[in-house]
Write a structure and sequence with these properties.
The chain is 41% helix and 21% strand. It is an alpha/beta fold. Helix 5 links the parallel strand 6 and strand 7.
């Protein structure tokens, strides 16, 4: 039995992984998956990849590409989803802002430096014609709970997070959603440390194929709407909308041409500061 430490966010996107675990699909292939939830998101997982705390991680595409450019000795094995992430631009319901242009100062809650909430704030600012290096500021909050607390006490006033995950807080009246920005690329990728790939490439490859096959069945199963709603405390109508716009890749090489767009965008934003080639971030 080969042991692989795998991490991901505790959100509905990763339910196919939990179904694989519950159904013993990894175990049947001789793989013992030790799963860890990371509420802190991609920034927390890239740190663990760097420091031998994880072998494989389900990370936001922009976050892992940026961290590899900074020396993270990991490679991208596959995209996980083939569709964008719908980032909601949130604020507390208890302030005066009704549209983003009225928010002043623009202080974004972010989980960590290099996280998706951090990098997408740059992308969003540029989309709105702002100078990301001059016109916005950040407050590190750790995770969604920290962001909600920061917005409530007004030490920050904007927060980017996946809109279906935050929908219950919008419905309850705690948060307002002011805008939506989709990632300009497939949102989630599967990354593994280089030393794990050199020793256990077959196991990692088997792992990826198993979860992608299970995700395909999950997408096609009409009972998945009820399952997600029950496990993640969401409305069935919201889950139905999410499943309609979300697809998982069919095989590991799918959508790899999208990585050049990621590199170009992050380079333009000065997040990637050195030349980075696509073949340097992808596992052979």
């Amino acid at each position: 039995m080969i042991n692989l430490r795998v991490g991901g966010v505790p959100e509905h996107f990763n339910l196919p992984w939990h179904l694989c675990l519950e159904e013993g699909l990894f175990e049947k292939a001789g793989i013992n998956v030790q799963w860890t939830d990371f509420p802190g998101g991609t920034g927390a997982m890239t740190r663990e990849l760097r420091h031998d705390g994880l072998d494989v991680a389900l990370v936001l595409t922009e976050g892992i590409v940026a961290d590899i450019s900074l020396g993270n000795r990991s490679k991208i094995v596959s995209f996980y989803t083939s569709t964008p992430l719908q980032w909601g631009v949130h604020t507390t319901a208890y302030n005066k802002f009704e549209v983003v242009k009225d928010v002043d100062p623009m202080i974004f809650s972010i989980s960590r430096w290099g996280s998706g909430s951090h990098l997408m704030a740059y992308v969003y600012a540029r989309k709105r014609g702002l100078n990301p290096m001059r016109d916005i500021a950040f407050k590190i909050v750790g995770d969604l709970t920290g962001a909600r607390e920061s917005l409530a006490d007004k030490t920050s006033n904007l927060f980017l997070w996946e809109k279906f995950t935050t929908k219950p807080y919008v419905d309850s009246g705690e948060l307002k959603i002011l805008d939506i920005i989709p990632t300009p690329w497939p949102c989630f990728a599967i990354a593994a440390r280089e030393d794990i790939l050199s020793k256990e490439s077959k196991a990692v490859n088997d792992l990826v194929h198993i979860v992608l096959n299970r995700a395909k069945k999950f997408k096609q199963d009409p009972e998945s709407i009820k399952l997600v709603a029950r496990r993640y405390g969401q409305k069935s109508t919201d889950v139905k909308e999410w499943l309609k716009i979300t697809d998982w890749v069919g095989k590991p090489g799918d959508k790899f041409d999208s990585f050049q767009t990621v590199i170009d965008s992050l380079t333009e934003l000065n997040i990637i500061k050195t030349e980075l080639q696509v073949d340097k971030i992808i596992a052979k």
